[in-house]
Amino acid sequence: MRLLIFIFVAVLAGACSRIAVQSEQSNESMQKPQSTPFAFPTLTKPDSEQLDERFPKKFRDLLEQSDQIELFETKLCLNGWSLGPIEPNKFQGCDIVKRARLTDSLIRHQLFDGVFYAIGSENNELACTSPIHGIRAIKGKDRLEMLICFHCHNFRGISTIGRFGGSFSSAPKELFEKLLSEP
């Protein structure tokens, strides 16, 4: 009988330690951020100054603190750069081809890093009349919309707190395409 009790206690102790180890591993995996294939270099001091000039902090804050973020690919059209009412199936007056709502915080931060890097690191003076990518961010009653052209390396934006724009590198293009291709 003692042998049976000893075996029962030993099995129970082994099972409990296995559960504890699995629980610790599960907690570790929850605490470590997932790595992703899209990483962008840190901006240099001149790049950061350029970012501040083209996309001032008040606009970046609105983007980063938004409750909703959507990416768009639109049909080519010559509309844009106004902040009218949101129309179904349109972004800046252009027909939407693809859209992606971003809810995952890691993906959102990758997008922010890519956008900030693209704005701060590019030195292009081309004007663009045909952007087909965009970002819409909404926080409460505030809204920000950006039109982006990877071909001309340019962006422009408008929000409830003002306008902004400038050069935009193609660094985050692959990230945009991946996000827009996911169901």
Provide a brief overview of the structure.
With 183 residues, this protein is of the alpha+beta class. It has helices at 2-31, 45-54, 57-64, 105-121, 173-181; strands at 68-74, 90-91, 94-101, 133-139, 142-149, 154-159, 162-167. It folds into two domains: 1-32; 45-181, Dna Ligase, domain 1.
Could you tell me the strand content as a percent range?
15-25%
Q: Overall pLDDT, averaged?
A: 82
Across the major sheet, the strand order is 2-3-1-4-5-6-7
Helix content: 40-55%
Cα Rg:
23 Å
**N-to-C SSE string, H for helix and E for strand:** HHHEEEHEEEEH
DSSP E strands, number: 7
N- to C-terminal separation? 60 Å
Largest sheet: 7 strands, antiparallel
Structural class: alpha+beta
CATH architecture of the largest domain: 2-Layer Sandwich
Q: Show unreliable segments.
A: 1-35
What are its keywords?
183 residues; alpha+beta; Dna Ligase, domain 1; globular; disordered N terminus
Topology (SSEs and partners):
Layout: H1 2-31, H2 45-54, H3 57-64, E1 68-74, E2 90-91, E3 94-101, H4 105-121, E4 133-139, E5 142-149, E6 154-159, E7 162-167, H5 173-181
Antiparallel strand pairs: 1-3, 1-4, 2-3, 4-5, 5-6, 6-7
Helix pairs in contact: 2-4
